[in-house]
Amino acid sequence: MRSVLLFISVFGSEPACETHALVPMGDCKPAESGFANVDMDSLTNQAVSIMYHTKESHEDSDRKNHAATDGTFDDQKTKNGRYVLSKKQPKDQKTIKITVTRPAGLTEFGGEWVKMYQKDSWENITNEYEPYSFNDFGSKVPLQEFRPTTLNENGQMIVNNAANTDTLNVFMEMSDDGDYEIRYGNPQLKTTEGKWIALEFKSSQLRVGTPPGAASGNEDLGTIVPAYLGNPALRIHDYREMSETLGTAIGAVTHTKKVATKVIVPIFTPANEGADGLSTWTEGHADVANQLMASHCDKDEVCTDKKYRGCYSSGRACPLDHSVCSIENCELQRWREIIKKFHDDGSGSVEVLGLIETKDANGDPRTAADITADITSYKTHTSDIAGFYFNNAHGSKETVNSLIAVSLAEIETESLKDRYFTVFGLGQPVFETEFVTKDGAPRAGSPDVWVTLSDNITALGVWTPYSWFPYVATSKWAAIVDEVPSGSVMTETLDKLVDRGYGYIYLHDTAFFNTTSDYLDSLIAGIGAKKTTRRLRGLQAQDDGVTTTQYECDDTLFECQPVCMQTKGVTRSKVSDETCSGAKPTHCNCRCYHDAFWTCENNAVVCKATMSGGEEQTVGDLVCITRGTPKPDWDPTAQTRTAGQCEPLEVEQTRRPTEQCMAEYAATPEPVEEVVVETTETPATTVAPVVSSLPELDLMGSAVGAAVGVALLALA
To answer: In terms of domains, do 240 and 111 share one?
Structure first.
């Protein structure tokens, strides 16, 4: 595969951005693909900017009528770094106007373009050039309303002498909801290799419509709470306290639809360790025929297996049936009690989910048989369980498809599909549309909810479900964020995540989930307060518009090195490095998909890529599509494909780990330690949090996976 060093060796020198006297472009540097992009909104001497406008109806040069803008723009640039168009527009109608302000010397009739992309993606939605008409000789000329040409005494247009101006106006179709960003290109702005430089406007993004949940007043907003408090017998009081806290807080919500709450409990996992030091839980039985065996050692340390009826309050088996022992003290009885209490205290708003580990201790996928065995154990021993949480459900396309297959076979069957609620803890964006929907309908076996953000407060990333999946219900998406301080930070984080289009949100005060969050009741109250009447002009989140920046890893797995992340109000964006103060970190902790390309496999067109430190694998189609290369319309069947089809087609926008990092991955493929990266802020009165790296193998990070090992039965 290509590398920067190979590129340099072929062309003799490293490509660079050509300077332009009229357009300062800061620290512009081409990426591995040879293309370059610069965030103009980040520059103090900004020479190019954009603005969105409504327009009246117009007829184009082909006599096609385009309607006037239906709705209005809400200018949230200062507060949230974006504009909000109240509703999507009719299809095949150019109903909005975008004005690019740039030096008149950049005027290139028919050469400069304005393109619309999904936020945090290089998937081009539409592109426009300067609108035109024809003069009396049939030559193209700019529209008279923007750049008029001279008419002679007879009213004839026989010359094209439109003056260069400092604005470019284009009409654009905007027929889909979602979050978008604009890029501008001009033939005068290019690299030394002749490739275009995309000028970006990260503080001038466009939101069209509102996430589905917000449009209906967020009435389905809920939370998913990991309850990894430890041994069910030793920590029974902690479980009861959490349940009562939830029940009271949910009951206080005034909206008719309470806060839908899912509670995760880790009962049947490979990490089980009961009070007896075994991987199985104790279970009491009154009937001697059903009683289990436990080892009993006498004073001479002679040990024999004996049946036991009940357990000590610690959950340990009690073969001698002492008076302090009871059936209710045994661990499985306690788990059943815990599940029932959560359900009872929640008054129909709480459902308990069983944790399913999909990876082993080394981070490798567990077999379908092992996962199925755990599901069966929940069904057999805790019949009141309301669903399942598949932890660390990330990996190759094959890995995720295999988990969906298990869900379809064991949970989403015809007789059980309405019985259980299923969540996949992915910990990254969904890169395959068919994981969620297939042939226009929900994918069979697909979970009810995808957890796409699962990290700490310092790594919220930029991805929004509303940008890539604007028509999928917000209740399909969840975020779990830990180490979130109480007070205003908790409230502002909730605002940000609701704005992104998440329907289930949980915020925790510490790094692990072995305690009840100090502000669990306040979180429930905050979610309840979001359940409001319908809003048509965006979420209108309360935020002071303060801008902060920090280096962190790219949660879209596109950039392979730390990137400068800007938070402006409720939006977050990747911006130019010069926006962040201090030296850019050079560590190799950021995971990314690199060397992505289209090819054919098993009579299908597939996207392949390599995860940092891993091997090439088949991944979701969006990995290639969001890197600027649509899925080829090939015939993938080996017997019928034509010559040239299915030859590896590299994506347009490529990023790759540095040679130093590639060498480090080859030498030490194990997960790397977390690193603290410098953060900065503007203005100096607001504190920006530090940021840690993403773990190499555990995409759930501190959010779920790490907590299980520490807290599952810490006090057993």
So the answer is: no
